[in-house]
Amino acid sequence: MFEFELIKKSNKSKARRGRFTTPHGVIETPVFMPVGTQATVKAMTTDELKAIGAMIILSNTYHLHVRPGSELIRQAGGLHRFMNWSGPILTDSGGFQVFSLAGQRKITEDGVTFQSHLDGRKIFMGPEEAVAIQHNLGSDIMMVFDECTPIPAEYDYVRDSVDRTTRWAKRCLEAHDRPDKQALFGIVQGGLYPELRQRSVEGLIPLDFPGYAIGGLSVGESKHDMLEALDYIPDLLPENKPRYLMGVGTPADLVDGVLRGVDMFDCVAPTRIARHGMAWTSQGDVSIKQSRYEQDFTPLDPECGCDTCRNYSKAYLRHLFKAGEILSARLMTMHNLYYMIDLMSQVRQAIESDTFEDWAENFFAKQAKTR
Amino acid sequence: MFEFELIKKSNKSKARRGRFTTPHGVIETPVFMPVGTQATVKAMTTDELKAIGAMIILSNTYHLHVRPGSELIRQAGGLHRFMNWSGPILTDSGGFQVFSLAGQRKITEDGVTFQSHLDGRKIFMGPEEAVAIQHNLGSDIMMVFDECTPIPAEYDYVRDSVDRTTRWAKRCLEAHDRPDKQALFGIVQGGLYPELRQRSVEGLIPLDFPGYAIGGLSVGESKHDMLEALDYIPDLLPENKPRYLMGVGTPADLVDGVLRGVDMFDCVAPTRIARHGMAWTSQGDVSIKQSRYEQDFTPLDPECGCDTCRNYSKAYLRHLFKAGEILSARLMTMHNLYYMIDLMSQVRQAIESDTFEDWAENFFAKQAKTR
After folding, report:
1. Which of A326, A328, A333, A335 to mutate to test binding with chain B, by most B CBs within 10 Å of its CB?
2. For the residues A126-147, what does the mean pLDDT come to?
3. Residue B216 belongs to domain spanning
4. What ipTM is given for this predicted complex?
């Protein structure tokens, strides 16, 4: 269980084609993971996710802890059963939300005391709590409890935080008594400081996690800074373990990440922007509310095979959006997720056939033309 | 085209089993028609509607006229193509919304000038306009432009209104130049005055509509008053034409209507209450937000075969509702529509097998027990 098989490595870039086996199924990498924050990928059923080829979805420890509570989900038979998803699930540790979403917080060596964003009640979460909650959820891939430091942040603060995150990672590992059923991934932090990223990795490698995440990116830094960090961080990680870039990103970000040796991605953007009437397409970005689409009876993306593009016109999608209809969120979300999942399927095929770098060049050229 | 075949008449009640043929398919009656006000049955795709057995859906002339405009829908190839529904569509005339929803209005013999509920702009609609809009929409069944009088209303006002509605019905018929492609139904008004209902019917019968609707009920009167009206109105109508009770109603209302000789029903209730977390079930009404369902891992309705009941628990549905998730509206709507459509399927089978009155008795007994 939790074996990562490296099927192919590109000779012209750091792109990798892999396969990660979990109790709920195999994940072909590189992979995009749709985000189901509150035990639902917003506006989608799990049957639809399966139909469009989602191989793994993500859910949020923090959100499920504050509502409906992980004990309830344990009683329901775990998160898979609760939300009717039979494939693999990755749960984050809650660290990111505790530091970005929750109210005033106090960090100690033990963990973090913070206020629920829902009702303000005080909650304590540390490594042991994050693991216990994820045990209740029964996810296939759990994440260690970490501090996601902001960018910019003082060197000394980030260094102390990295060291604490490493100590927390050890405690998570010690609290995790079912490594055969749930894989626990470590998280590399260190902001934009190469020596602190190195320090983070050196602390984690001896713990021999079955996978490693790159945290602390996509937190407001420039795209240039992110790519610079991605130019060296994956190289620090063991080759035979999956690498997961947390919270990233746009279609271009994914291709950039794959070129630099990343295997797994997640992001709320495709579902979130869909609800705001935005679509990513092979022809560039589409903001469906624009009046230019009022009498446009062509599909959102003429090259797309999703249900939305096969059955509905831009004019209809614009009408639904303007009218505030739920179907608008559904159809736009369906398209964006299909687009991301199909994109990664193209990426995998291109790596397999030794054409990924050309494919990526074409992809970026087309993006440049349509923006 | 537009032939109504009376397959079976009950000996013990006025219940009828019929079949109405339209250009987009056959409607087995008695039938419940889901409402797609703004060219979408809220929260549902048309594929889902088809899958749960919806045989005809309703859409709204008034709403589509104010947004996105019927000319746009004509350019899209008609409403069927615009919203991706290949089955029959019934459009109301806009009369009901003009009198219930729009801003200050002035009624003349020509028609009604009113303010759009969206932006306050002045709109004129009369019989010719209502027909022209419905021609643009291309619905299988069109409705005449009528005045839906409130209850209570003065006898003299209702009498004058009935006479004007009859004159408007004639003008609709004269403006309707494609009776082979779109059927135009007449609407009986007259409030709770038996002699005015009679007067309305006498005005309409000579016009020989292919179907007749009973309007002006379910507008705030008591259930007792509605049933009293339904005890005699259907008898005034020709036997060989379908009878459509507009805007009705609850599961019990439908059974009551069928017992009194009604063939077609529509109502926003199943979709609207679903979005407020309410479900109709074989075990009675369920308000999913109630704390009693917090740890209830059984389906919404153990006797139901819909996707919601096959795949999700009350505890999960409650979580989705409390979390404000779109999937809550989707799953609750799916169930309520399935319930109504399945109910009418049971009704049709019971009429065919001469057991409808017993079936109805059991239905009401069960309802009484679970409320």
Report:
1. A326
2. 98
3. 4-267
4. 0.97
